[in-house]
């Protein structure tokens, strides 16, 4: 795969996001409380797609996630996922933390930060800040990254997620997202779009989802885009997860 070299960047948001996530996770784990909840999940995906593009080079990916929710609304967690960047297998580690509060209207708001680290592509590490609103079946989130995938690219990403019950434990899930590269030093890259439509089913602690995903092209200057691969702009992805 042909690629353009960029100088390695140490994004401030990565350090801030990691510090926030770890700073939240460690003290919260020691607080306990009847309403506190700790959970985890293991999952296998036929293709690890992130915002429409593959982070596993079209191959399957195993993932492990840990989460903690505090009674006061603070939450934190981490995820390990198999990835493939620049034709090299590696592990992506992501930590996140934030605060969520319910409004009188029944909606809730949240704000937080996340940080991602790639074991064999450290110059692709990056952090994001995010904020969002959610109801029982609909959620809207806005993300900002000052150094997307470690590059000198500022990005804003907005996503809309929702679901509708169909029959029993079966539901329809939908997602739409748009990534905008914010101008810096005169660079103005075209926006990218992605969508997902799928069916999800739950059986006890097991969950399965079959979804169709699509993404727009990366634009004329692909070398300036992050180093994640896209064997196809469209894919049918199957995922199975167990929660504990």
UniProtKB/TrEMBL annotation:
Q: What is the lineage of its organism?
A: Bacteria, Pseudomonadati, Pseudomonadota, Betaproteobacteria, Burkholderiales
Q: Name the species this protein comes from.
A: Rugamonas fusca
* InterPro entries per UniProt: CHP02001
Q: What is this protein called?
A: Uncharacterized protein
